[in-house]
Amino acid sequence: MRTLLPKDDPSVTLRRVRNTDLYEVGVYDADPQNAARRANELVAAMQSKLNEESGGKRTFRIWERAQPSIRPTN
Fold first, then answer.
1. Under a CB-based contact definition with an 8 Å cutoff, are residues 23 and 15 in contact?
2. Which end of the chain is less crowded, N or C, counting CB atoms within 10 A of the terminal residue's CB?
């Protein structure tokens, strides 16, 4: 899985969710909108590549799309 993500990019993380077959892709950016957009693009590319490698079988799917965090306004 990690080989499908950008190399030498410390702003991108991949973490397996304990006791599941799920992975969490994290993208850090000063702009939450940009981080969410980029995370969704990376995961969509991973989904396409993994499904292509499995001969068209849908072996990988996006469980939940990234959304930017909402900062409370005072």
1. yes
2. C
32 CB burial (10 A radius; 0-12, 13-18, 19+): middle
| pTM of structure | 0.73
Decide which of 24 and 73 is more confident.
24
For 16-65, how does the pLDDT look when each residue is reduced to its tens digit (9 = 90+)?
Answer: 889 988 888 889 999 989 999 999 998 888 888 887 877 766 666 677 77
Radius of gyration of the chain (CA): 14
- Where are the domains positioned within the chain? 2-53
Q: How many Å apart are CA 15 and CA 24, to the nearest integer? A: 5
